Amino acid sequence: VDLLSLSAACDALDQHNLKQNDQPMDILQIINCLTTIYDRLEQEHNNLVNVPLCVDMCLNWLLNVYDTGRTGRIRVLSFKTGVVSLCKAHLEDKYRYLFKQVASSTGFCDQRRLGLLLHDSIQIPRQLGEVASFGGSNIEPSVRSCFQFANNKPEIEAALFLDWMRLEPQSMVWLPVLHRVAAAETAKHQAKCNICKECPIIGFRYRSLKHFNYDICQSCFFSGRVAKGHKMHYPMVEYCTPTTSGEDVRDFAKVLKNKFRTKRYFAKHPRMGYLPVQTVLEGDNMET
Length: 288
Known about the structure:
It is a peripheral membrane protein. It holds the Pfam family EF-hand_2. By secondary structure, the chain is mainly alpha-helical. The chain has two domains: 6-171, EF-hand (Recoverin, domain 1), CATH 1.10.238; 186-268, no CATH class. Helices cover 48% and strands 9% of the residues. The chain contains twelve helices and nine strands. It has helices at residues 6-15, 27-44, 51-66, 76-86, 91-102, 111-127, 140-149, 158-166, 174-184, 218-222, 245-258, 263-268; strands spanning 24-26, 73-75, 108-109, 156-157, 188-189, 201-202, 205-208, 215-217, 236-239. The strands form four sheets. Strands 8-7-9 form a three-stranded antiparallel sheet. The chain has a two-stranded antiparallel sheet with strand order 1-2. Helix 6 (111-127) crosses helix 7 (140-149). The longest helix is centred in the N-terminal third of the chain and has 18 residues, at 27-44.
């Protein structure tokens, strides 16, 4: 699916007249639409796409995510969410497209409609057994978080939804992380890992915002290795693509500022890389 452009996905959905998002799709409809998608991809990437195999595996994946009881039906919205979330497109284009699917004809979205979208999105990490990292499978706290961000308006428009998504709310942070992982796969950074001495660093690069010229490669960072004098709670910045001169200057200024801060300051002010979402127990009751 990572070879599929958003426009090609939309063409296939239009071709099969999949406009009613709350309607169920049966196995035959899913297979027909997937066949259209993979036939087109085979023309562009014939060495990578085996149509019957891809259709079978994608069908299985969609049913594993959205039809755990194996009823043989999933909603059109679920089909679109699964395919578009993993397709080849800019992150914000995906957000705009998905918001449009649940918005009314006037372009606004209420709590119930947003809940449908977030519910279908969270099923992807849930199927991988990763849902606990994203605040659990209950989407009410995320819906509440979004509408609180919008000053508790009864409905939100796309621009406000995009602003909230840019903060990377906990329940949806898996999708931008997926994009960063994909971008980092081939990235080469002109820097040397201070721990294993890998140079250039390939993949993610972690730069210290406490020490000058202190970089860690992804293997050392993920396994929690640190060099002498560097604590795990010190601030780091993650790069999935090579840094620009502007980012280098900005990080230099941050290191300078952090040089004057104490160890206690960093222990007290841990940085969250995403917008934490309160659990149901912590928030007020929400009308569902």
